[in-house]
């Protein structure tokens, strides 16, 4: 069966599928709304499939439309990557790597890795996005990033995980707090304090590990705030909204009025791992993983 479908039809369809609004999609595509409607109708006629349910006030995807949106989102991204890489080769550049990472990975791990990697690949380009663990997993599966740096123990099938750093936790306090490394004995001393923790959505397994620290210390913490950014945690601690517990590597790179006490006597440790999609054909991914080896 032959379809008279062009690449522009697919991009038009995705724009409407994402916005579920013909006018908004048309504005984003810089074409007229009637013109966009005709292109989508032509695509439906050529395929013999209804992709949208059109109502007076809203547009909905059909079951077939939902399937097509999910598949095209992934596969058009692969095509974009192929075309981008061909352009880089034409320009004499070796390639591009897009990274996702949790904040602690950017303190030392990623900069040190890239310094070594650039020695052998001087023309490689890098893209960086700080995001939580689940966002990285989603973006790896959809090929929007090539490499992730996460704090997760389990990942979906099709992804590979390689631990690169196991570290201790640190207690974070305002600089003017009476407890310091000289008179600190255990967390029981702070059972009546409020705590500011990374949001459970940041990493459910990481959050459970932190909560286990409190359980082993014999109390349930008063959690006053949750956030996904270390800078936000430190700003709240600095202003006496509570204390926190973070990975040791997060004590570097911030200039705030907080102090750290390394929790060396507890059994819990946190592991930073690099993760990638086994089906990712970006040749730079393999080169980087070999550098980590």
Question: What's the CATH class label of the largest domain?
Answer: Alpha Beta
CATH topology of the largest domain: D-Maltodextrin-Binding Protein, domain 2
Helices and strands: which structural class? alpha/beta
Order of helices and strands: HHHEEHEHEHEEEEHEHEEEH
Radius of gyration: 24 Å
| Averaged pLDDT | 89
Share of helix, binned: 25-40%
Strand order of the largest sheet: 4-3-5-12-6
- What is the percentage of strand-forming residues? 15-25%
Termini distance? 48 Å
> Which consecutive residue ranges, at least 5 long each, have pLDDT under 50?
none
Figure out the total of helices.
Answer: 9
**How many structural domains in the coordinates?**
3
Tally the beta strands: 12
Shape: elongated
Largest sheet: 5 strands, mixed
CATH homologous superfamily classification of the largest domain: Periplasmic binding protein-like II
CATH architecture of the largest domain: 3-Layer(aba) Sandwich
Q: Please, could you describe this protein's structure?
A:
- The chain has 293 residues and is an alpha/beta fold.
- It has three domains: 7-85, Orthogonal Bundle (Arc Repressor Mutant, subunit A); 93-165 and 272-292, D-Maltodextrin-Binding Protein, domain 2, CATH 3.40.190; 169-268, D-Maltodextrin-Binding Protein, domain 2 (3-Layer(aba) Sandwich).
- It is 40% helix and 22% strand.
- It has helices at 7-19, 22-29, 33-47, 63-90, 109-120, 133-141, 204-216, 230-238, 283-292; strands at residues 52-54, 59-61, 96-101, 125-130, 147-150, 159-167, 169-174, 194-198, 222-227, 244-247, 258-262, 270-277.
- The strands form four sheets. A five-stranded mixed beta sheet has the order 4-3-5-12-6.
- A hairpin with a 4-residue loop joins β1 and β2 (59-61).
- The longest helix is centred in the N-terminal third of the chain and has 28 residues, at 63-90.
- The two termini are 48 Å apart.
């Amino acid at each position: 069966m032959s379809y008279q479908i062009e690449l522009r039809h697919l991009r038009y369809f995705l724009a409407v599928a994402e916005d579920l609004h013909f006018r908004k999609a048309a504005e984003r595509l810089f074409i007229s709304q009637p013109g966009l409607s005709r292109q989508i109708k032509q695509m439906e006629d050529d395929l013999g499939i209804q992709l949208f349910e059109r109502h007076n006030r809203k547009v909905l995807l059909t079951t077939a439309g939902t399937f097509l949106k999910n598949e095209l989102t992934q596969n058009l991204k692969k095509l974009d990557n192929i075309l981008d890489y061909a352009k880089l080769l034409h320009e004499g550049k070796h390639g591009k790597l897009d990274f996702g990472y949790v904040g602690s990975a950017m303190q030392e791990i990623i900069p040190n890795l890239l310094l070594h990697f650039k020695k052998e690949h001087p023309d490689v380009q890098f893209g960086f996005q700080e995001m939580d663990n689940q966002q990285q997993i989603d973006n790896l599966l959809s090929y929007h990033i090539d490499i992730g740096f996460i704090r997760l123990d389990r990942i979906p099938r099709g992804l590979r995980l390689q631990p690169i750093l196991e570290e201790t936790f640190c207690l974070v306090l305002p600089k003017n707090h009476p407890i310091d490394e000289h008179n600190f004995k255990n967390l029981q001393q702070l059972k009546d304090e409020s705590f500011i923790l990374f949001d459970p959505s940041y990493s459910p397994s990481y959050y459970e590990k932190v909560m286990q620290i409190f359980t082993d210390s014999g109390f349930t913490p008063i959690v006053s705030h949750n956030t996904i950014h270390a800078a936000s945690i430190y700003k709240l601690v600095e202003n006496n909204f509570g204390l926190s517990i973070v990975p040791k590597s997060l004590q570097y790179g911030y200039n705030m009025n907080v102090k750290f006490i390394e929790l060396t006597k507890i059994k819990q440790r946190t592991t930073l791992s690099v993760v990638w999609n086994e089906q990712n054909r970006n040749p730079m991914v393999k080169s980087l993983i070999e550098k980590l080896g």
